[in-house]
Design goal:
Elements: E1 3-4, H1 7-29, E2 34-40, H2 44-60, E3 63-69, H3 75-86, E4 93-96, H4 106-112, H5 124-131, H6 141-152, E5 161-165, H7 172-181, E6 185-189, H8 196-201, E7 205-208, E8 226-229, E9 233-234, E10 240-241, H9 246-249, E11 255-256, H10 264-279
């Protein structure tokens, strides 16, 4: 039976550290870390995520303000609103829910978020720092959550063969840079990679983020595999699932993260930690 790498343990540690930082900020500056959440429309998944963020903010001591905007607003109108948030001293960090409506130019929006308030790491300058090996600023929350789980559980990364099944700028590419900073040997795969089973079986650590429920079966792993499942989607019967067929893999591999209860439970905590850092 695999060792289950639970995210709530990691999240709890980070939250305690955050509470201490918030207390110090309030004592020294008399201000409260505040996140401005920008949501266009009323997408159910956005609203669900929003409620989770607000609950976590309340638990930790961060103020949250939701700005609900109409999906019909133009790129120019959204830029103007983002600039208002940039110049609002009461807002420590900005979170803009994506994907945006198709008529809005996301690249223009990314360019206009102030790097100092870009807690979701959208701005090219913040992404550039990661690719230069500088992890002291804002980082994408999901890949850093995966890293936190690995580091918290003292999983050796130096010299290890790590396979990431995702090539996006949101997860795969920044995660590869983070792992390279720890001297891991990184292979990036994707949905069109040939002989994927062979590649993952030869890896020490496999990190999946395909978004295909139960895609990875036993054939992709060995008894030495450490599996970090970043994917979140729903099965045909509406149940939440990761990329990995957890029930059929858990008795084979060495270590594995569950879904839910794994990487996702750390991601929001990482995001809010960056709000606190932005306030500092």
């Amino acid at each position: 039976m695999a060792e289950i790498l639970k995210g709530n343990v990691v999240a709890a540690r980070i939250k305690e550290e955050m509470k201490n930082k918030i207390k110090k900020i309030e004592e020294e500056g008399g201000i409260k870390p505040t996140i401005g959440i920008v949501r266009l429309g009323s997408n159910p998944s956005d609203i669900s995520y929003e409620k989770s963020i607000i609950k976590n903010c309340d638990d930790i001591g961060i103020k949250s303000i939701v700005f609900e905007k109409d999906t019909s607003m133009s790129t120019e109108e959204l830029v103007n609103f983002i600039n208002w948030l940039n110049n609002n001293d009461d807002i420590s960090g900005i979170l803009l829910f994506r994907p945006l409506p198709k008529h809005i130019d996301e690249e223009i929006i990314r360019q206009n978020i102030a790097p100092s308030k870009d807690v979701d790491c959208m701005h090219p300058l913040n992404l550039e720092k990661i690719f230069e090996g500088n992890l002291d600023g804002f980082v994408p929350a999901t890949p850093w959550a995966a890293m936190e789980i690995l580091l918290h559980n003292n999983i050796e990364l130096e010299g290890k063969n790590v396979v990431i099944v995702n090539r996006s700028m949101v997860v795969g590419k920044p995660l590869a840079m983070m792992l390279l900073e720890k001297n891991a040997t990184v292979t990036i795969c994707h949905s069109r990679t040939k002989k994927l089973e062979e590649i993952t079986r030869n890896a020490d650590i496999v990190i999946t983020a395909l978004g295909k429920p139960k895609f990875f079966s036993r054939e992709y792993f060995t008894e030495k595999s450490i599996v970090i499942d970043v994917g979140v989607s729903t099965t045909e019967d509406g149940k939440l699932s990761g990329d990995v067929d957890y029930e059929n893999v858990v008795d084979l591999v060495d270590k594995i993260t569950p879904v839910p209860g794994g990487v996702g439970s750390v991601t929001t905590t990482i995001l809010l930690n960056q709000v606190v850092n932005a306030c500092k």
